[in-house]
Amino acid sequence: MKKLLLLTLLSASCLLASAQKNTPKSYIELFKEDAIRIMHETGVPASIILGVAMHESGCGNSALAQHLNNQFGVKGGSHNVYYRNNKKVSTAYKRYESVYDSFQDFARIMTERSEFSGLAGQFTHFDYQGWAHGIQKHGYAHDRKWSKYVLSIIEKYQLYLFDEKPETQTLAQSN
User: Fold this and answer.
1) Are the C-beta atoms of 132 and 149 separated by less than 8 Å?
2) Is residue 82 domain-resident?
3) 45: left (phi > 0), else alpha (psi -120 to 50), else beta?
4) Exposed, middle or buried, 172 (CB in 10 Å: 0-12/13-18/19+)?
5) Distance (Å, rounded) from C-alpha 71 to C-alpha 102?
6) What is the CATH number of the domain that holds 31?
7) CA–CA distance, 120 with 110 (Å, rounded to integer)
8) 3-class DSSP state for residue 41?
9) What residues in the chain have per-residue pLDDT under 50?
10) Looking at the 3D structure of the chain, how many domains does it have?
11) Is residue 7 part of a domain?
């Protein structure tokens, strides 16, 4: 009887743990409207916001995303503390009140920091490929394949459709 109860509890906890994980599709559904709103405010493509966030945070499943709402691995000016597996973790990564705030800060970095601020003038919000290559070229990530990873996420999940390119809207309306 005790073994049966233990197995039932273990099964239930495994189901709960797996239910809490974001899938790429659930992450997109949760945050696509935020990304589109920020695109209209800043000019940073929604596909870039979502694609970079999905890549950097593992679709919101990373420790930083779970504990600090930090979807992009942005470092801050002070130390933050959170608990992971009953252990205290002190980190220099920024804490955000919400995922939306993290998205806004990423867009602010892309439009206001000197190394990235020229991208908005160089690329439209329809040119997600130009943005991905430009972000990498200007030092956002050290991995030489970073833009390929982000672009593969954008293309696999058709995140470019959120950039509201006129031809895309016309095609979608005619179907």
Assistant:
1) no
2) yes
3) beta
4) exposed
5) 6
6) 1.10.530.10
7) 8
8) helix
9) 2, 4-19, 168-175
10) 1
11) no
